[in-house]
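As noted in the main text, all predictions were made from sequence alone. Below is one such record, for Putative cysteine ligase BshC.
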Amino acid sequence: MHCQPLPLETTGAFPPLFLDYISQKAHLQPFYGHFPTLSNFEKQIKDKSQFPPEHRAVLVKALERQYKNISVKPDLAILNEPNTFVVTTGHQLNIFTGPLYVIYKIVTAVTLARKLQAAYPDSKFVPVYWMATEDHDFEEISYFNLFGKKYTWQTQQRGAVGRMTPRELGEALKILPERVPVFEKAYLQCDTLADAVRCYMNELFGAEGLVCIDGDDAELKRLFLPVVESEILQQEAHKISNATTQKLEAEGYHTQITPREINFFYLIDGLRERIVKEGDIYRVLNSDLTFSQEEIIAIAHQHPERFSPNVVLRPLYQEIILPNLAYIGGPSEVPYWLQLKGIFDYFQVPFPMLLPRNFALYINSASQKRAEKLGVTVEELFWDDVKLRKTFVEKTSSLSLELDEEKRAIEEVFVAILRKAISIDKTLEGAVNAEKTKVLNTLENVEKRLKKAEERNYETEVNQLLGLKSKLFPNGSLQERSDNFLNFYLNDNTFLEKLLGTFDPLDFSFNILTDEEGEEEVFSSDNATGRNNPA
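Prediction:
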């Protein structure tokens, strides 16, 4: 697989806070710990070397329970060893893996673990996929796009999505264009969506050592109990993260998350709702559940699994139960982690490295040939349709569509007219300038009409160009945010292997991927560096 990297800023697809972070702008350094370079991992390993052995024991037992129905599983026992560390990514439990970037996240985690193993052979590194099983936003996970068609899961189930039964997806399996045994096994044989996701991720990446973890676990939550009590009684996380948020916004950045006074949901079967404090009473929204302070603390000790952290505290929960070095996230996740470092400092938990996932656009051979025939560059594919159309016609036309020379000639003529007019009557200056403006505006309109006429002359080519853009950027968004990996995997069952052999987890570029190999660039690009990684 050929990989042609582009600087992320040339794509116009990433927020300023994310771009400034990967550029290591000095004013952002207080909002994170070590920046993710290979040499800095030595410092991160040292920071995490004091991870409690009793937490490792609880973690391994929890994973053994979660993997009990999987026959061929990754080596879980090595997580008990003090020199074993993990690198983590996570996402919601989108059906059929959801958008392509979920796969890119996991590939980044696997390749990072490989890279660290080679660089630090005295330690062991395990890639981890944090399954967002406690999330209750079903609409976000309920669909996926395959070959231009949207498939949607309709259900009456409510509550945490990880606890839902996935067998209803049997109907979706029947109408797929091809059979996909890995999903048939997962969705038809597993009791919960969490089990199903673990099942198919293990089929796809288990051989690479990927470990899937479900945080919806009573014993793992018990390790988080001090934070639960602190949040119920003191609500410090709200104050700390608000202060950090204000600092980031003062720097001109848009922030991602809004902290709550209590950053926990109450979680039972069929229900995951926010906990709020009203006077001396703790209430669960959209329910009849209310508790006194003594009652809610008692429930936390008896049933810690009922306390589900929201986006503000979930990262802290992850770092308390995992010997984690880095979190691998996208352009929205990395910025919201920057809002949270003060919370980690307050609870004296090492802050992980924040590593951008790999980003990519895959171009098959047919689309590549079309792009080459049209003479479009990689950067131009990221432009909006109006700019892309205008630039293409101007670049392709054999005629000059600009009237710059004519405008300069008019300017010179009116300089002479104005000189003559002023010599006769100085009050004529305004009238002469007004006439000049009218003439120049007329030329502007003529120029626009010339360009429109030439666009019509190239209508076939323009339509081909916009069709290519629509194919590579479905619904006007990045391919990785819309298409499912099955778009490529069904045509090439080595697709995942190629990604694993191509992505560099520490190269923060946008990767243009094609199946061509060799030293030549895929097609014309002004900013590409031409890195090539054969699969």
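The two ends are 5 Å apart (CA to CA). Residues 62 and 510 are 37 Å apart (CA to CA). These features were considered when defining construct boundaries for the mutagenesis experiments described in Section 2.9.
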